[in-house]
Amino acid sequence: MDTIGKRKDTDSHRPPGAPPELIERLRSIVGAENVLSAAAELAVYECDAYTIEKSPPQIVVLPGSTEETALAVKACAEHRMTIIPRGAGTSLSGGVLAVAGGVMITLTRMNRIVSLDPRNRRALVEPGCVNAWITRAAAEHGLFYAPDPSSQMACTIGGNVATNSGGPHTLKYGVTTNHVLGFEMVLPDGAIVWLGCTPEGGEEVDGYDLRGAVIGSEGMFGIVTRVLVRLTAAPREFRTMLGIFESVEDASRTVGRIIAEGIVPAALEMMDGLITSAVEARYNFGFPLDAGAILIIELDGMAEGLERQRERVVEICRSCGAREVRSAADREEREAIWKCRKRAFGAAGKLSPNFMTHDGVVPRSMLPEIMRFIEETGERFGLRIPNVFHAGDGNIHPLVLYDERDPDQVRRAIAAGHAILERCIELGGSVTGEHGIGVEKIDFMERQFTADTLSAMRDLRAAFDPEGRCNPHKVFPGSFRCADWLPKKQIAS
Amino acid sequence: MKIIPADIDDLGRLLREATGRRAPVSEVDLSGLGGTVRHTPEDMTAVVGAGISLSDLQGRLGRSGQWLPVDPPAPERLTVGALIADDVNGPRRYGFGTIREHLIGLAVVLGDGRIVKAGGNVVKNVAGYDLCRLFVGSRGTLGIVVEAAFKLRPLPEAETIIAARYDDLDDTLALLDRIFEARLDPVVLDLHDLVGADSEGRYTVTVGFAGIMEDVAAQTERARRLAAFEPASLDYDGIMRDPGSGRKITARSVLPSKLGEELRALGDLPFVARAGNGILYVEGPAPFPASVNNRALTELTERIKAAYDPGGILPRIEL
Known about the structure:
The complex is a heterodimer of chains A (493) and B (319). Chain A is α+β, with helices and mostly antiparallel strands. Chain A has helices at residues 20-30, 39-42, 66-78, 131-138, 157-163, 170-173, 210-214, 248-260, 273-283, 306-319, 331-342, 344-347, 367-381, 407-426, 445-448, 451-464, 482-485, 489-492, and strands at residues 35-36, 59-61, 83-86, 103-106, 113-117, 122-125, 143-144, 180-186, 192-196, 223-230, 232-233, 237-245, 267-272, 293-301, 322-327, 354-357, 388-389, 399-402. Chain A starts with 19 loop residues before the first helix and ends with a helix. Chain B is α+β, with helices and mostly antiparallel strands and 319 residues long. In chain B, a hairpin with a 4-residue loop joins strand 3 and strand 4. Classes of the chains: A alpha+beta (493), B alpha+beta (319).
């Protein structure tokens, strides 16, 4: 963030519509160095990790406290400006895209761990606190923060609350909503509320579970300013295995068999042959280059009994046709496996100049079916689609490879992705398990939900944000689209 | 007005009409909607009609070696709909959490008759807002739950429940501290006194372990090094909290580390405490102040209630 410490006097480059009085007011609230309004500075905030659409905000504000956030929000409310809360900007669905400009409220300065209470297994953190920092701080007490999205070294807790983030270990431990006890939030009118369990209070809370309603609301209900998270006893032992299979089909069947046997691994991840070779080319872990699919299976818990479970998992893998099952020998090897898995998206750059990722979900029993469909879809559209995903959750991550310099490939890539998501809905699943709807998947909402259900969602939003000013143009069909409005830089090029 | 819908569409129509007439609904009989259970063991999920009793549901799931990991008192008299609306739970809450953690989908008819299908039948799903959680513990004030989908768990291979008894509260609390420090991983960590002053061993600390056989045996052994634990049961929870007992029970929730202070202030009243969670069940009217409120929060709650039950035909929400 050091590049934004210096404010340049660039009022002449300010995009139209940013009221000078508002800029002045915001400067007086958070300090001039924490208000950005020059085009060059705003360009940094023109997109998140979903880079197909870009649109800069008119102003970026970096508050340093709850009070500053509330005052800034109130000032925006008085000027009828839209507000867009933003953390590290790792959203893969355009969740923090400033579709029609507005004031981006960036929480990265508020990044402290306020307190850590091992006896009550809680930590109080600011929204800009990076996910992985909590586990790092809790480790000495034998505790950890369970949700571990692949972007955990960068993504922030505020963003995790907005998107109800998951990660490879959600199979056993659950997602963000299962680990966030409560939070302080600035409503779009500037009022400050505490939802859910308070730092000094018990876990039972009177009234509606508004904490649950806000988690996963994609930043459309307000701005989270402090978060109370649950810490979990860290497992003492791990057994991390690599099951090497000739085909995705065999690996998919293995997933269902393990679950049906009553074994709940901490993680159960699949990498197909194509992504495995890319990962191997990048990280030289020693993955076989001729395998059809690899399952990463991790068991965790106390030491006792884990070895017997490991043996049972090895047997199941073999009976489903595994060529080989390797076990991580020590902590270093386990960490190397997870490093490869979590950086697999990055390695996809070895395969293609561009890729689009989707994160549909199907019931686990439909995994063989959806994997077959993805393969056929790749053939049908003449595109390569490697897969690296949370198999144990039925949460697919096909990476549709394309070259943005070829408009026809871009069109085919979009169509292939849509076909896969349609199929997820048909199989009784969802179009997104982790990444959210954002601007990317708006068109699927009407396919997945009934009109009554969508209207109940709109009502809930209106209760929090009657004027619809907080992170607008997301999630709902009929939203104003920046693609309709701005030249599509990439697609057009 | 009592309503007996034939199916979910009928319930939608009846509630829409009641809203039109501003006619309060006192009771909804869901027996016409059946107690269907669609259980897919390899998905570890089930879609369940709200009218089925929890004990019937557990029986069905148990045949495939799975369960819905909640254990409220009197499950034979508790429907799945009431389980969600009243958010009831039992001693194993420490290890498995409450029903909110296991709910993945809901079919619910709002007060105004809209039929909402929230979430789905997959274990991970972030499409749209999470409407499911809003109905957990909402006491039927927003809508009537007709069907629910749950994440399940395998039945544990083994479970051990053990208890140690003390005359003195300080000794009891010291044991709880030792259990925390030993970094055990119990699924039950309770403390109760149902016998009162002058009884020998009036305070009972109950600990439960569940999971892989060898793990349960090893943890039980480690716990036994901390105190004179004996095999025990969880019957005390039903004795205290069974709604059929006629007792008026109130719950108080505090930081687990503050439980000792609460218990000292309690005097000789009988109680059951979820020591791991910091929850205290006591007989009698609430002796404690209601939770602190805030005007913005009250207005937020009222706006949600007004949007989903505009006719005010469902129970009022107490603020």
